[in-house]
Known about the structure:
Layout: E1 4-7, E2 38-44, E3 48-49, E4 54-61, E5 66-75, E6 83-86, E7 88-90, E8 93-101, E9 110-119, E10 127-130, E11 139-144, E12 148-149, E13 152-154, E14 174-177, E15 187-190, E16 200-203, E17 224-229, E18 233-234, E19 242-250, E20 257-264, E21 276-281, E22 289-290, E23 294-295, E24 306-313, E25 318-327, E26 333-338, E27 352-354, E28 356-360, E29 370-375, E30 381-385, E31 387-390, E32 398-400, E33 405-409, E34 417-426, E35 432-441, E36 446-452, E37 459-465, E38 473-478, E39 484-490, E40 507-513, E41 519-528, E42 531-534, E43 543-545, E44 550-555, E45 561-569, E46 577-588, E47 598-602, E48 608-609, E49 616-617, E50 628-630, E51 635-639, E52 649-656, E53 661-668
Amino acid sequence: MKRLFYLLLPLALAGCPTGDDDDATPEPTPCENDGPPEVAVLAVEDGQPVGFPVDVGAQVTDGDGVSTVTLWYRQTASPAPWQNLFLSQVPEQPEFWVGSIPGVGITDPGVDWYVVAKDVDDGCQEQRTEPVGAPDQFFTFTTQLDLTPVPYSTDFELGGEDCGTEDLSQLGWTADIQGFPQSTHAWRLRPQSPLSGRCSASHSEGIPFLWDCPPPEGEGSILRKNWLITPPLDLRGKDTVAVRWFEKRLESGICAETHGLYVSTGSPDPAIGDYQLIADLPLPASSWGSSDWFDLTEFAGADRVYVGLYYEGGSASRWQVDDFYVGAPLADLALDSTSGLSDDVQPGSNGVTLDVTLINHSDAYGASDLTATLTTADPGLTLVNDVATYASLEPGATEVGSAPFVFDVASTHPDNAYLDFALVVEDDAEHRWTVPIRLLMGQESSVRVDWTAGGDARLDLELGYGFPANPDFSVGTDTADQSSGFWQFTITDHAAVLPPGPGARRWFLRATNAGDLPATLDGVLFTVGGEPTSASALDAGPLDVPAGGEVLVRIPEPPAFSVVGMDTIPDPAAPGGTVQIESLSLLNSGSASAGPVACAMGSSDPHVSNVDADPVTFGSTPIGAGELRGSDGDFSFDLDAAHVDNTPVELTLLCLDGVETLASSFTVD
């Protein structure tokens, strides 16, 4: 529990300098500053836990106003330079300034700190440090190092209902951001497709072509160098120690990336420089799998060990980590085979059976009799029989479970999808293994992009879904020096938004010509369940991408409604009364609507009021591509008498086709 209390400090006032009345000395510029700010800091209680953020603050007042309040901190007696952070004003109580020293700065045996407050008088700006003699004098609070016994394992679960509201620090882990300074693009707990339970530790992907690649492969400035650091581990009394975890990678971005495993027996802060490289890590596969076992025996006997996973890259991929283990090496249990899924398993199938055979890849360690529990984070799967037992597994041995596992597939589950499970295996000594299992229901899905870019033309290609300016997912590539070719990408992981469709299932392909000669986008073809879906924008032939230009293709193209005709009463519309719009006609210059269309009218024009917001339908069937459709009813609004400048009135239709809402702006003269 962190507690803050007022520590009232002497507030020495210092006036502005003045010169003697000497005709030979130029008179200094008069200083009207009323003195430095008055400061009372909020002291921090001793015994703060290492690795957890600590709240800090101060009450600051000044007649000229307060410009900034800065807190400086460092590890007690550390030779490292002081770190700083700006405190923020409390909106309801502007004399209070608060902030939080990040967990990575809360180290053993304590933290030194002081505050600098500056006023806003630029002509004679003054400041106060607290303590007054800072940085030679400073405040200190002690910390408490809670060592974690080994063997240590975590599945990154906290017991809450929402991973997005939980923090790695609640598990004793630290996420240290050394690169791009946004917590959303660093390590955090996330609910997306964990191996077991509800959460995994996830480092988010970047944004292709919005973030340029950093050196050495590019000249961009966004470089993420972020760490995921364990609690302090107690290896005293241990003879052999190893680390192993499970991981997966969602390919995204366009930049290279680096993963690494490090260990520190000193400070947990990577900036101090105590971390040693254990291994450069290969990039994980797209499905959950085990890392290698890494020997940490050289650190056995140490009273504190921090294990760090390091991510470096720009617009690169998502790295997910789950079921992390440090301790004595165990049998290396893995999936040998499954009975698989029959061709008739599909959404709505019940009583699906699954036999699982395990293998022990270790050549030195065996496992005694085991109990296995099948788990899944897929809400569309229901486990009917989730427990089986396995006989002991000597090195190199295989064993099939005592009974098949049984599960149901919801009728709403996406077809042509991966079914992901985690088999949690335990022995009588409470050793725990996790075995990922991935099954394919239906067929794998893919997308192929064909292009031509001769000479000095070069296309940057970005594929994704969601709003193109801020997509839910995107992945990119470039055509390098090839004159023509294709890019094929497996997208089975995205079965929930396949095949491409309206609304949230709409995909996009952005082609940007970064070269000096024109290029063409020749085709975009999705294959889902063996069925093709092409980009209708290319039905008439390739699309030109001029040098320095960009083409955005939506799959499918959205409807595009525009108002092409109407009648008004009165005619023409006049201020000072109600205007009724009759026989309004919509032209759909995009793809067919997903269903019948109904539109409501609105306006941001200050002279428009009392808009009839009731939706008006446009027939009982979808509006086809190129179709002109009239309204089934009328719209109305009041036009203020002050509208006397004869300018058109701006109006908007918000049209819903059962899947998405589309806006169309128009004017009434």
